[in-house]
Structures are given as C-alpha cells and as structure tokens.
TrEMBL record:
PROSITE patterns in UniProt: GNAT
SUPFAM superfamilies for this protein: Acyl-CoA N-acyltransferases (Nat) (SSF55729)
Annotated protein name in UniProt: GNAT domain, acyl-CoA N-acyltransferase
Transmembrane segments: none
Gene3D superfamilies reported for this sequence: 3.40.630.30
GO molecular function, one term: acyltransferase activity, transferring groups other than amino-acyl groups
Organism the protein comes from: Septoria linicola
Signal sequence extent: none
Length: 233
C-alpha cells in the first residue's frame, strides 16, 4: 500500500533499453568495490530538484535501512515490509530486485508474440541528492490479470509534505506506460486514513474506484482500503 506526499512537476524520462530476511553484511572493502561497480548511470527518471529514480544499488542498504526503519512509514504499508527494517532487510530486497527472475519483459506487445523487449527491473530506488530515501515499483499481475500491475511506493518521513512523491508517481506512471506495452491498467490501494496518498494518486491520473470496508488489519486495527486505477492513455 502506498505512502505519503503530494505535488506536480514534469520529469525527464531517461530511456532504459514489497522484503525477506537473510544473513548478509557488507565490509568496507566490499562497499568500495560496489561503489566502483555502480558508477554506471542507472537513472530512469530525473524529476528535478535533486530527485531521481534509478535501479537499486547494494550500497543503498545503509541509507534505505535508516529511512525505512520508521514506524510511521511502516504503518502505511503491508506487513511484508519488515519492521524493524535492518540492513539485512534492505540487502535482501535489493538483491531480489536485481535478480532477473523479478524483472518483466519490456517493449511492444502482441497476442501472438508477447513482449519483444528485454527484461528490465520493476522496482526502483527514489534518490534525493544522491541518497536512496524510498522506493517505487510495479507488482505485475498473473493469470487473467497479466496485463495489469499494482503500483507501490514508500518515502522517508524526512521528505513528506514536500511534493516529492507526487512528482515521482506521476513520472513513474508515464515511464511505465512507455516501457511496458503489455500494461493496460495500473492499480493502487491506499488505507483510508492516508489522505496525502489519495491526493497524489488523483493528481497523477488515477481515479477513485471504490472502498473495501474493513479490508485490512494493521496492528490489530481493521481499516478500509480505497481502490484507485489508471488506464493506459
């Protein structure tokens, strides 16, 4: 389930041809090697003002764990998002996102031939002034829902209320349509108390489609879920 802020802005799209636990630690030598390997520009969106969206890097684990280990962030997300959120949590998720098994075929799509482009990641880091402070991505449907995907995201509480997430969601939605021709619909679910997220989704072109009463239980409290959808323009 999504999380926080609002806003509008035009983002530059750069062409590009929810964790598990594990016992992983990064030594300083490993971090130095990783940073050297990650000098390639993996950015898919430049949202302006120091905000960008790029592929996850293993070196993001430290900053992601610091920003994600926040109860206020976790309360707006599904329980598969760990809490407490450790560096091992971040590393496990990042490695999953980097695995080809989690990627989706891009490019033009047809009933006969399927998608014609390469597999690309569906989950990305939100970066502000060089620091990973959140994430956004798509969870592709299966079976009869294979032409839809659910949008999910989270952002560090340090950056709530600044219009960051609204800009990112709008830009990422456009990028998704351009990258995955197979998609005809994007879904998003928000707990009814998360007013900021409902606002930003509507500004990003999603339409409110209904309310599922007492649909989720978070920390023992039953909550309504608001359903949003966006169709390919």
């Amino acid at each position: 389930m999504p999380l926080q802020p609002q806003a509008d802005s035009v983002a530059k799209i750069v062409p590009l041809v929810f964790g598990r636990s594990c016992n992983l630690t990064l030594t300083s030598q490993m971090m130095t090697h990783i940073r050297k390997e990650e000098k390639l520009d993996d950015t898919i969106l430049d949202c302006g003002g120091g905000v960008s969206v790029r592929k996850h890097h293993l070196s993001d684990a430290v900053s992601c764990s610091r920003h994600a280990n926040n109860r206020n962030v976790w309360l707006n997300l599904r329980d598969r998002f760990p809490h407490p959120y450790t560096e091992d949590s971040a590393l496990s998720w990042i490695k999953h996102c980097q695995s080809a098994d989690s990627h989706a075929f891009s490019g033009a799509w047809s009933d006969e031939g399927g998608a014609t482009g390469p597999r690309v990641p569906t989950q990305y880091a939100i970066v502000i002034n060089g620091e990973a402070v959140g994430a956004i991505g798509l969870d592709f449907g299966s079976d009869v829902y294979f032409r839809t995907a659910e949008l999910g995201y989270w952002l560090s509480e340090d950056h709530w209320g600044k219009g960051v997430m609204g800009r990112v969601v709008r830009a990422f939605t456009t990028w998704s349509w351009q990258t995955f021709d197979i998609l005809v619909r994007l879904n998003a679910e928000v707990v009814a108390t998360n007013i900021a997220s409902t606002t930003l989704l509507e500004r990003a072109g999603f339409e409110y489609e209904g309310r599922r009463r007492n649909a989720v239980c978070k920390v023992g409290v039953m909550q309504d879920v608001l359903i949003f959808g966006a169709l390919r323009p």
